[in-house]
Design brief:
The protein is mainly α. The chain has 15 helices and no strands. It is 42% helix and 0% strand. The relative contact order is 0.03.
Length: 213
């Protein structure tokens, strides 16, 4: 038994049996289990991880180089074919058919621009009819429904959300500035009147008379 298992680290027995860690045997190389050098059998069968075979390249399953069949059939991930570009399904370049029909995602057609459905440029029809989201029309500004500029009608009637009218300020219902009537009558929520402070019912500052007592 000692003769069958020699003590030398890299014996012929190791090399022949395929258990030598340093030099893979010819049996390893021929059977395709050699981790270092893939055999010719690997390269020809298309299972070689290093070099894809001609069979791979020709059948269109090569991960490195897409075949001409891929490029011609329109399934090539790298270069879209002319068929793709012409049919309007090319993801890279939208065709003239797309651009003309108004379904091109990159450039809206003149039909889109003229009909008022163009998302990029609102047409004059939109601007004139008051439905343009970009520029409110004169019609909007005049009737008081313009969200950007409140009209004089709004400002005069007291329904303007931006500037309360003098009528609001004078009547005491102005939410922004309480009128003198509010301040004098003691119902002003912002500034308690002297009457509140003197009578001892001021919630903010108790009068000195109450504090001393």
């Amino acid at each position: 038994m000692s003769n069958l298992i020699p003590s030398a680290p890299t014996t012929e027995w190791h090399r022949q049996t395929g258990t030598d860690r340093l030099a893979q045997t010819e049996w390893h190389r021929q059977t395709g289990t050699d981790r270092v050098a893939q055999t010719e059998w690997h390269r020809h069968t298309g299972t070689d991880k290093v070099a894809q075979t001609e069979w791979h390249r020709q059948t269109g399953t090569d991960r490195v180089a897409q075949t001409e069949w891929h490029r011609q059939s329109g399934t090539d991930r790298v270069a879209q074919t002319d068929w793709h570009r012409q049919s309007g399904t090319d993801r890279l370049a939208q065709t003239d058919w797309h651009r003309q029909t108004g379904t091109d995602r990159l450039a809206q057609t003149e039909w889109h621009r003229q009909s008022g459905t163009d998302r990029l440029a609102q047409t004059d029809w939109h601007r004139q009819s008051g439905t343009d989201r970009v520029a409110q029309t004169k019609w909007h500004r005049q009737i008081g429904t313009d969200r950007l500029a409140q009209t004089e009608w709004h400002r005069q009637t007291g329904t303007d959300r931006l500037a309360q009218t003098e009528w609001h300020r004078q009547s005491g219902t102005d939410k922004v500035a309480q009128t003198d009537w509010h301040r004098q009558s003691g119902t002003d929520k912002v500034a308690q009147t002297d009457w509140h402070r003197q009578s001892g019912t001021d919630r903010v500052a108790r009068p000195l008379l109450t504090q001393c007592s």
